[in-house]
Amino acid sequence: MRIYLTGFMGCGKTSVGRRLARRLGVEFVDLDEEVERMAGMTVRQIFESQGEPAFRQMEAEALRGTLAMPDVVVATGGGTMAFEANAGLIGANGLAVWINPAFATIAARIGGRGKSDRPLFKNESQALALYRERLPAYRRADLIMDVAPKEGPEEIAARIALRLGSSGI
Ligand code: S3P
User: Which backbone phi and psi does 132 adopt, to 5 degrees?
Assistant: First the structure.
């Protein structure tokens, strides 16, 4: 089974994804890391030197690459699901899980470092507008995991594994 973790920047896709993959005994792929590997530079550098459309193309390519893996947990980027072609591909080939903490939790978590790593998190009010714009895309996920403010990645991964098990997927 392919599991695609989705949600806004800083929601925990990567940290939960690694733990979930370990629990399920499958490989883990982080789309941002794949793009950085393909490009030989950081996401921020790609945005700065080639622009967002180039990044989106690489992101879509990295996403297509996951189809070669029958069993995998994939941490998507915060914007991946917002593009119809990506959402369609995920819907047809895997299960989307939305990791959904409150925006206040996300904003508190994305400190100085997170901001500098993330070209699309410029400040809190801009990020809130982007978050709201993307909610309909995240809501299309097959499984919605509401996350409490202090809940850690291991607990979230455990809850996802439990839900996957009990839904018989
Ligand atoms: C983006 C989120 C980032 C990364 C890029 C664009 C977005 O991933 O893909 O900076 O459009 O929200 P994370 O959600 O892992 O921070």
Answer: -65, -40
